[in-house]
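Researcher: Let's do a round of design. I'm pasting the structure tokens now; please hold your answer until I've finished.
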């Protein structure tokens, strides 16, 4: 039987990105909080700033 899709079709990998409110709640459970200067930044911006 033949495959319905060719081998050249690639699926995009979906990268998990949490909602900011969920991220802040998670930080509170850990006893941490966002700095005031970082409060208006998106998750992507925070990830770039603190990436190691």
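Researcher: That's everything. Go ahead.
Model: Designed sequence:
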């Amino acid at each position: 039987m033949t495959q319905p899709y060719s081998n050249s079709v690639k699926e995009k990998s979906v990268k998990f990105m949490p909602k900011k409110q969920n991220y802040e709640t998670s930080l509170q459970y850990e006893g941490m909080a966002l700095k005031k200067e970082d409060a208006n930044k998106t998750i992507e911006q925070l990830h770039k700033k603190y990436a190691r």
